[in-house]
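User: structure tokens for this one?
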Amino acid sequence: MGMLQPTQDAELINRKASKKGKTDKDLLKRNKIIESEPDTEKREMETDSKRPTQNPTELNLQPVKFQCQISFQFDLASLICLVVGIATRFYNLTQPHSIVFDELHYGKYVSLYMKRTFFFDSQPPLGKQLIALAAYIGGYTGDFKFVAIGAAYPENFPLFAVRFIPALCGALLPVSVYYLLLQLGLKQLTAATAAFLILFDNALLTQSRFILMEPMLLLFSVFGLYCLLKFIRCRESPYTFAWFAWLIVGLFSLTAAVCIKFVGLCSLLLGFYVVWRDMWSLVANKNLSIWSLVSQALVRAVVLFAVPVALYLSLFHVHLSILNKAGPHDSVMTSAFQASLEGGLASITKGQPLQIAHGSQITLRHSHGRTCWMHSHAAVYPVRYPDKRGSSHQQQVTCYSFKDVNNWWIVKRPSRSDLAVSRPIDAIKDGDIIQLVHGMTSRALNSHDVAAPVSPQNQEVSCYIDYNISMPAQNLWRVDIINKDQVGDVWHTIESMVRLVHVNTSQALKFSGKQLPDWGFNQHEIVTDRVVIQDDTVWNVEEHRYTKSDDQKERERDMVHAEMIPTRPTTLSFWDKIVELHMKMLFSSSDTLQDHMYSSQPLDWPLLSRGIAYWVNTTTNAQVHLIGNVAIWYSGTIAIFSYCVLLVWYLCRMRRKIYDISADEWARFDLVLEIALFGYGINMLPYFCVERTLFLHHYLPALVFKIVLLAAFTEHALTVARSCRWSNLIYWPLQILFASWLLMILYVFVQFAPLSYGCSSFTVQQLLSLRWRDSWDFIMQRSALDVDMLL
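Assistant:
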């Protein structure tokens, strides 16, 4: 047996000593237990002697005792955030007692909900539904007319109830951000700092006090991400109640954000990334079998699909079920959609004949995109256009956006000279050749090899006038029913979607979408196009009646004075409605580019170059202006830039096997990167690609993620400062700088708070003192007193 080395001898002695020490301690414990045993036995004997004697034949039944332990954790910081949030958001909530900014639109929607009248909006309905529910509970009946920004609410209007939901969501947002940062593994002080920044940002305060959608959008987004991070904590115990609950509630909340505004889809995609990133990390766990990984991935995929789809469709089903009456917005929808509503077009079209026949009087509506009807009038195309091109000088054919007697056309077979409907009716079928005669001028729809007025690459459409020149009529059209598999090969009112193909040139009748000049009364152009299969060549018959007489004067009188008698309702399935509604929402979103004096661009937002005037009192200069806390916005922009620089620095150093921070600190840094920085980017970058009018409030979802990143960056900076070799020189100055920064944020908040509440009067000088940037456009109305002061 070999000799032990000295170091080995020392280790052996230490092990024996520690073992001996442990043994001695065990002996002492055993001695104490043995010494106490006689006393214990004595007490038990005394207790037994005091018990009453029991009959051995009786059963010894003892009541079963169930123990239930409830633990309650009290987080003072979150409670303070909630109290301060309620105080700041609900303070003077009914002031100003006037319509503020987009309350004009959302208030109208709430009123229409109360009346069950259909309205069209390019955003999903959940936010409007929640506000309408609060208004209903508050006793609102929908009688107030939202006429203009600044109009006063009546005294009996439940303004507190209508503004309650946004204010409540604004008060809960700081608490949700607080817990989100705790789930990111950051310190409680850091989480409280983020909540502090949310509480005292003026833009978030302003947006939370009125009938606006952003507070609900932000709350659902943040809370949904918090729930998914809690779900990730349950990865070691899949399929448990907590595992399913956090996943479903998180997806429910994120989908609710999408149902407030479509921009919530950015947060939902971020949530999908969080779930699948966690799934990818489980693949590296060798303790999990392939079957376990596959089954868990399938369960996640099913839940990720089922919860958002079910909630989204359910909300639209509620929306369409409530709004079953026709109103001013239903003209945006197709004829079939309008006919399924009570009143309006439905009261006109329910009694119409179904089959289009020779002699039918019809109005042809463009079925996709802009709402308009094929129209003609006695005016003709100019002989020459400004670009020196010549025209046919025939009668104009346009697409008109309003109901008009000149929208009526008569269907005629080329082989027949009469225009009255005979019995049995001569129904028009798919592939039939027809002529369309304008009802008021009796001229046939025509096309020929002449360039269209605004779209010269297409062919002109007109009503033929015989000038006795070498330009014969070309007025034959073929009916192509594109949905004949669903409605049959007979041309039907409303249901049949048709293309009218010009027989001579094989080009389809098309709505070009372009507007005619003054000579065309600024109506829209109709042309024929060689590309037959496209959405703008699809038409449908909206209004229909049978011609009773061949006399033109009598026909004209019938067209002007005719009234339909409803016989049965027209139905449209939920799936047909929701598909059409989303198509219209898509088209309307792509057609919202317009100038606005307070519009801004994405590059203006990080440094707060522009605000938005929400409301102003014309006599006192009291006003509500959307403007952020510059100390927070500028600090956040610096933090994003610094975080990106640090990321590149750390990655380059790690590539060289140099590790500046611990593994735990890097894990937190990386998680904040994936949630906060990705969240900021995914909510910011899409606005660089859209063509629509943008405002500062579009930046608020990105702002929340910027604040999360800013708070995390402050913790990281203090942690690195504490661990570096010059920590004694750096750490405490940074602490002082941090405290001074918080005080500066509070100071800026107090300075601009009157612009959030709209309760304080301003002189021009006071407003000018708040104009810290030349691009901030506050509304200033000089009173006589201000003029005297300036002089």
